[in-house]
Design a protein that fits this description.
single chain, about 400 residues, alpha/beta, Rossmann fold, 2 domains, 14 helices, elongated
């Protein structure tokens, strides 16, 4: 996933330094080249050998260490780095970097790096909220540094407040956002729908479908990592919301229709990956329910056709993509949907093919436009999301 990417982890003196060992391991599993820098104070909390074992690279601490491969170590590493994460970042090191002080291996290398740089503060609450520290963080923001807000909770000093280093998973998401993909969707606004909708019959019964939301969530994540400003309109799912994405939670098809149409005019790309319930009960009044219980039937009406509405109201230069779930005549039915709903692309699934459809982590899709029919092999839904966006990018 992060092949041929170099991640520099700059570790400063904080009890939270132990978390970076796990982060280094996680990055290694994604096949990143992980290089670790430490301040002398950081070595009091975790031994450099730990990082060397996890990364297979020498952990750099001393600016004047003569045991290195490059002629000027901090400059060579700075040129090689794709992203730098300073975590945990102490008030001392934040102050040094903000004011151009480079007096050790860590600060010297960070200053020399032209790549994106991320700072994750971790310290006592009173230190973090100190106006000088806040001014330094604001100064770093103005110079293009990304600042990760610390978590709030019980600190090592037993105080409760802001200052906790976020989890390794959060730190990893910031790194992936910076370097996983080329930012070919920067400046684009993307709207994606995902998951099922739920139509209440009564307080305990409802009409829905088997959609898990995995495909839509994968599209939202990949579009975000490629630089897009993503809005995700999602029905009820068990999935964790993708980071750095605006999420609009909905229940019914009407909820989804209203959420989508409220923002659709501002979007450059709309992908409808949600599986909306086709029908909703005509009435949920008590007398209607009692009548229906006599013969076991519920009177239904069709829900709003969101994709058809979007096609009818598509603005100039807007790209509209829908999904087609078919059990037979997949190509013919999907091409007909492309024309009838004024779409630019249809992603067709044959639900009879093993590995495709709802409730699984893989998909078998065919990308259909007016000009092409591209049949793709079995792949993960995230891989499928990459291919879908690749085809959209090329148009």
């Amino acid at each position: 996933m992060l092949d041929e990417k170099t991640v520099v982890l700059a570790v400063t003196g904080s009890i939270a330094a132990y978390k970076i060992a796990n982060l280094a391991s996680m990055l290694g599993k994604l096949r990143a080249d992980v290089q670790v820098l430490m301040t002398q104070n950081a070595t009091q909390f975790i031994n450099p050998i730990t990082f060397e074992t996890l990364t297979g690279n020498k952990c750099l601490v001393d600016t004047f260490d003569r045991n290195f491969q490059y002629s000027v170590e901090h400059v060579a590493l700075a040129k090689k780095a794709d992203v730098v994460l300073v975590a945990p970042a102490s008030a001392n090191v934040i102050g040094k970097i903000a004011n151009g002080i480079a007096d050790d291996m860590l600060t010297t290398t960070v200053m020399a790096c032209p790549c994106p740089k991320i700072i994750s503060p971790a310290m006592n609450t009173n230190m973090y909220e100190n106006s000088i520290v806040q001014e330094n963080l604001e100064k770093l923001k103005r110079h293009g540094y990304t600042i990760i807000e610390p978590d709030v909770g019980l600190l090592a000093c037993k105080d409760v407040g802001a200052g906790k280093l976020p989890s390794e998973e959060v730190l990893l998401e910031y790194i992936k956002r910076e370097i996983r993909f080329e930012k070919d969707l920067t400046g684009k606004k993307v709207l994606i729908t995902a998951g099922p909708t739920v139509e209440a019959i009564d307080p305990v019964r409802f009409i829905s479908n088997y959609s898990s939301g995995r495909m839509g969530y994968a599209l939202a994540r990949v579009a975000m990592e490629r630089g897009a400003e993503v809005t995700l309109v999602t029905g009820p799912t068990s999935l964790a919301c993708p980071p750095f994405v605006k999420v609009m939670q909905v229940q019914s098809a009407q909820d989804m229709f209203e959420a989508v149409t409220s923002v659709s005019a501002q979007q450059d790309l709309i992908i409808k990956a949600a599986a909306v319930a086709d029908y909703t009960p005509v009435s949920v009044a008590e007398e209607k329910i009692k009548k229906s219980e006599n013969d076991g039937t519920i009177e239904l009406k069709r829900t709003r056709d969101i994709l058809k509405y979007l096609g009818e109201h598509k603005k100039e230069n807007q790209f509209l993509c829908g999904f087609s779930m078919e059990t037979e005549h997949m190509l013919a039915n999907s091409k007909e949907k492309l024309e009838r709903k004024n779409l630019d692309m249809v992603i067709a699934n044959n639900l009879k093919v093993e590995g495709a459809g709802f409730g699984v982590d893989t998909n078998v899709i065919t990308i259909i436009t007016k000009d092409i029919v591209a049949e793709l092999p079995l792949m993960t839904k995230e891989e499928a999301a990459v291919e879908i966006l690749n085809h959209i990018k090329l148009r």
